[in-house]
Design brief:
374 residues, OB fold (Dihydrolipoamide Acetyltransferase, E2P), 7 helices, 25% strand, binds zinc ion
Length: 374
């Protein structure tokens, strides 16, 4: 294992921050796996899981069991970690720009990439072309000059991930059950991980509209594919998923150990780590389209009383929460329209009218446009 420190652009005089990455099995011919945690800096369960995973990878590396390369970034957002304003931890948005740390990731333009590879595209080797594309992406990212600390963080993360076969982005939600987001294309490869993690919500979307870290490589691949002649084959893009390690306050050794071990089992099952993969538990719930998940909105302001626990399996018409108005005595009950799992809810107990309150999975897609929140 070796440790790499990538200095970020210094924002103000006398301050510096590094992005620290841990590299296991570097230079091995096998697959490259990239794992990062807490890109939204206030999502601590992910960071604890990554720390436990690091301990396990150190053991496995020392035992000579690495068959591929794993790059682990347990603290993916040192900028956000420092954003404490009037006692509040602001880890989701960059304080200077207001941008969500996990939206609108910038990638090189598809046309420029196709031109960069030029006459080297091969007409009979899809895997070779994928390597060419990944190398061109890394090359162009390497030529980019970040203008500020935020851009330098994004660039450093993208450089780690751009030539990876598998990208896992570890997050958590507000109050939630273990769930994950991935694309229909990645889902067959991610399913073993969902099973080892015991995920009871799997949300599928090719393009959620947010250009989040796990989606951008496949989106770029689609654009490049569309520009290439039909007789130039291109291997599949990387396999990518965003894992939501329950709610922000679910920070304990038991969950972190279980989740880290699930990732290790997934890596063994993929052949990245030598060994016999443990038996895969059955998937708790079938994957559902992200466009089918119902976003519950508070129709009025008031005090929130949740009537459904996170992880509850609900039927259409089941009450999810009440909103109490102590001035008028009105009690407004909100029910779900879906049959599905109540996989996440907000942590606040007082809401304004129009506030997003939680989500229930649904088998039938009905939403269009941007599918994820701010
Ligand atoms: Zn997040």
């Amino acid at each position: 294992m070796h440790v790499q420190r990538t200095p970020l652009v210094s924002t103000t005089l006398g301050t510096t921050r590094d992005l620290v990455s841990f590299h296991f099995g570097a230079g091995r011919a096998g697959q490259k796996i990239y794992i990062q945690a807490s890109l939204h800096a206030d999502e601590t369960p992910a960071m604890l899981t990554a720390w436990r995973l690091k301990q396990r990878l150190i053991e496995l590396d020392a035992a000579g069991r690495m068959r591929g390369e794993v790059v682990l970034v347990p603290v993916a957002n040192p900028i956000g970690l420092s954003q404490h304003v009037l006692g509040q931890f602001i880890g989701r948005f960059e304080a200077n720009s207001g941008q969500n740390f996990n939206r609108q990731f910038p990638m090189p333009a598809a046309k420029a990439l196709v031109e960069r590879v030029g006459s080297r595209w091969c007409r009979d080797d899809a895997a070779y072309n994928t390597r060419l594309l990944r190398a061109a992406v890394c090359e162009m990212l390497g030529e980019t000059t970040p203008r500020n600390e935020f851009e330098s963080l994004r660039l450093a993360l993208l450089k780690h991930a751009s030539d990876a076969d598998v990208v896992l982005d570890l997050h958590c939600s507000l109050e939630a059950t273990m769930h994950l987001y991935t694309s229909p294309a990645s889902w067959p490869a991610i399913e073993p991980l969902a099973r080892y993690l015991g995920a009871n919500g799997v949300l599928l979307a090719t393009d959620s509209g947010g250009q989040s870290f796990d989606e951008i490589h496949a989106l770029l691949w689609n654009e490049v594919r569309a520009l290439l002649p039909d007789d130039v084959p291109l291997g599949a893009p990387n396999i990518a998923a965003t894992l939501e390690h329950r709610g922000q306050r679910d920070v304990d050794y038991e969950h972190a150990d279980g989740d880290a071990e699930a990732i290790v089992s997934f890596l063994i099952a993929r052949g990245v780590i030598e060994g016999e993969a443990p038996e895969m538990p059955a998937l708790d719930r079938s994957a559902t389209p992200l466009a089918g998940s119902e976003q519950l909105i508070a129709p009025v302001s008031g005090i929130v009383i949740y009537r459904a626990e996170v992880g509850a399996v609900l039927k259409a018409g089941d009450a999810v929460f009440d909103i109490v108005d102590p001035l008028t005595d009105a009690v407004t009950t909100i029910a779900t329209k879906n049959d599905g799992v109540f996989y996440m809810r907000r942590a606040t107990r007082f809401v304004y009218a129009g506030a997003p309150m939680g989500r229930v999975t649904g088998a039938k897609a009905f939403r269009t446009g941007v599918l994820i929140g701010a």
